[in-house]
Design brief:
The chain is of the alpha/beta class and 226 residues long. Helices cover 21% and strands 20% of the residues. The strands form two sheets. A seven-stranded mixed beta sheet has the order 4-5-6-7-8-9-10. Strands 1-2-3 form a three-stranded parallel beta sheet. The longest helix has 10 residues, at 136-145. 30% of the residues are buried. It catalyses: 3',5'-cyclic UMP + H2O = UMP + H(+); 3',5'-cyclic CMP + H2O = CMP + H(+).
């Protein structure tokens, strides 16, 4: 999502009327002109907005779930690779993990979403979980793969009727139990109007349980090296 503050509408089916995004980009737009590849987990506007479509180099390889391939090609991207199960690119193995953005009636409304495990023999694995709620399939993925790093969207994003559509602080504790060696990076907070968990609240939650080191919680623009 590359739009300026307030350029985008409120998230539909939520209790808030605040426009998005809430915070400015931590880098200038030219930063995105020269990238090796793009990985799209799903095409909600906070993951691929009109500004991104206009700015991103259309010749850049784009990896996505099968449901988004036609959309990306219609948007002008020339090198779109839909990943059904797995795909190898430049020595990196990309494994798609089918996700679930919500429970109950909102599952169909929000549409498909995928996570991806990226791995190499030399560097280990990173699991980009994306906008997924904690579900049995996600738990099994952690049990089976034991990723070295997991990027969790722990924003506790909320729709009407209290429906939670991302992971929460409590899910960090669940993942630590099933995959204790995984280093967790908690993101997707403080920038979108329907995200109800703030970074500071998550830090307090973990500190109260003497788990300050259970997750890395980066600030906007912070670079993390592993």
């Amino acid at each position: 999502m590359l739009s300026d503050v307030g350029e985008l509408p409120p998230v539909p089916f939520t209790r808030t009327f605040r426009r998005n995004p809430l915070t400015p980009l931590p880098v200038p737009l030219p930063f995105f002109e020269d990238m090796d590849a793009i990985l799209l987990t799903h095409r909600h506007f906070d993951h691929m907005d009109k500004k991104a479509i206009s700015v991103l180099n259309k010749r850049t390889p784009v990896f996505c779930q099968p449901e988004d391939q036609a959309f990306l090609r219609a948007a002008g991207f020339l090198n779109v690779q839909a990943i059904q199960n797995s795909f190898e690119w430049c020595g990196i193995q990309l494994k798609r993990i089918k996700g679930q953005h919500a429970q109950g009636i909102f599952t169909k409304l929000l549409g498909p979403v995928s996570g991806f495990i990226l791995s190499t023999a030399a560097d280990g694995s990173i699991y980009l979980v994306s906008d997924c709620v904690y579900a049995p399939a996600i738990e099994e993925t952690f049990r089976e793969n034991q990723p070295d790093i997991a990027i969790l969207h722990t924003a506790r994003a909320q729709l009407l009727f209290g429906t939670i559509i991302t992971m929460t602080a409590e899910d960090i504790l669940r993942i630590r139990e099933v995959s204790p060696a995984t280093r967790i990076v908690a993101v997707h907070m403080d920038a979108i109007s329907h995200c109800t968990l703030k970074r500071q609240q998550l830090r307090t939650f973990l500190k109260e349980r003497s788990l300050e080191n259970a997750a890395i919680i980066p600030e906007d623009g912070e670079v993390i090296a592993f």
